[in-house]
Write a structure and sequence with these properties.
single chain; 214 residues; alpha+beta; Translation Initiation Factor IF3; Alpha-Beta Plaits; 25% helix
Length: 214
């Protein structure tokens, strides 16, 4: 039980900061009437992707093989297989944005390879999150002091503080590049990293001295 007046406020912070990561997906595909031929082509194209990603280190921070699919194509009636399809997708995380455009186009230059992205993001432990939370608390304290001052009072103590759960709002950008040989090699591509929105909000209750009214 709190004796005396209390002021309850909401503190907020909004920041736009440069992204720290860029992610994109690269998908190799294959199709043939013969299942073994499809699998062989798929393995060869996936290996070619791996070689390119190996050559891009250390710009590539992480890569993860995701969806591997092999499925038959049948006629509309019956179960007769007319072709086999295969695909394997890899998610690539890049930290060196100067090499990003060139890498994506080099991958897209491979036969039967699709590249999609990039998706810009911050690291989960980015200092930007901490800075936004600190700014939200400072905003709550400033508001409480302003309300108290308007009443001729002053803030004396913090009674409670709650994070309302507002988190970062990732900004995305997506483009798709189909595979196929480009005459003379891939062209240059400059990508502009999209700023990331970081938000934080808190609800706080402060005790204040007796207001001076009248």
């Amino acid at each position: 039980m709190v004796d005396g007046p209390v002021v309850a406020v909401r503190g907020e912070a909004y920041r736009e900061v440069p992204p720290e990561l860029a992610r994109f997906t690269v998908t190799a595909t294959a199709r043939d009437r013969d299942r073994e031929t499809t699998l062989t082509r798929l393995a060869e194209r996936a290996a070619a992707v791996r070689v390119l990603l190996d050559s891009a280190e250390p710009a590539v921070e992480r890569r993860e093989t995701g969806d591997l699919r092999v499925w038959p194509q049948t006629r509309r009636s019956g179960e007769r297989v007319v072709a086999w399809h295969g695909s394997v997708a890899t998610t690539v995380t890049v930290t060196d944005f100067t090499a990003l455009g060139e890498l994506m186009l080099r991958l897209a230059d491979q036969d039967q390879v699709e590249v999609a992205g990039p998706w810009w993001a911050l690291r989960p432990d980015s200092p930007a999150h901490r800075e936004a939370r600190h700014a939200a608390i400072a905003d709550a304290l400033l508001r409480a002091r302003e309300y108290a001052e308007a009443l001729g009072a002053r803030v004396t103590a913090l009674l409670s503080l709650a994070d309302t759960g507002v988190g970062p709002q990732p900004m995305l950008a997506r483009a798709a590049y189909g595979g196929g040989a480009m005459a003379g090699g891939p062209p240059e591509l400059e990508l502009d990293p999209r700023p990331q929105t970081v938000q934080a909000a808190v609800e706080a209750r402060f005790s204040i001295t007796a207001p001076v009214l009248g």
